[in-house]
Write a structure and sequence with these properties.
The protein has a single domain, classed as Nuclear Transport Factor 2, Chain: A (Roll). It contains three helices and nine strands.
Length: 209
Amino acid sequence: MNLLKSTHIYVAITVASFFWLGSAKSTAAQDDNTQISELYKLQASYHRAATVQDPANGDAPDTITARIRDVLSLFTTDAVLYLHVGSAVDGYYLSNGDPDDASTCPTPSADPNNRGTVCTFYKYVSGPFQAANKFVALTPSYKESFDVHGNMAAVYFECHYFNVAIDPATGKPLWTSASHASFTGSARKVDGRWLFSYAIGAVPPVPIP
């Protein structure tokens, strides 16, 4: 009888352990999926900010400034952006900034180790935020990757920009390729929100499935 009771107790403990382990794994998987989902939304917000709002006339200066503020809100205050595309303004852009404050958003310097701030890059360098350009930013979903490690995540995605200015001959958007860039870096969770903390901007290879 004692042996039978011990067996019942052992089976009960074993079953309970399996349920607990299964529940713990399920909770961890759900949390990981939640974090990945938030990172996808962060990337989507980036491309939304990089897309023209008035393809017919081009965005007004106030609209462009608002878009710059939107993209800067996706970066940490101590963010680092390294541009590596073979241009005259390649180099490091250090910390965030305010597009209306020249002290935190200066024009690009001649020093590749400190070209200015992340704000400098988006206000003066990044094509989608220049008044003359009417770009739409798209990204192929199979070229996105997010790898979460606690409050840090490795991030990769590509930005494919298309000129959607209106073709006067047809009255329709041109949809001509403008430029392609890759974003390789990291994101950090700050006060419960994912933000980009480091980025390398480069020219990506041809996106083969």
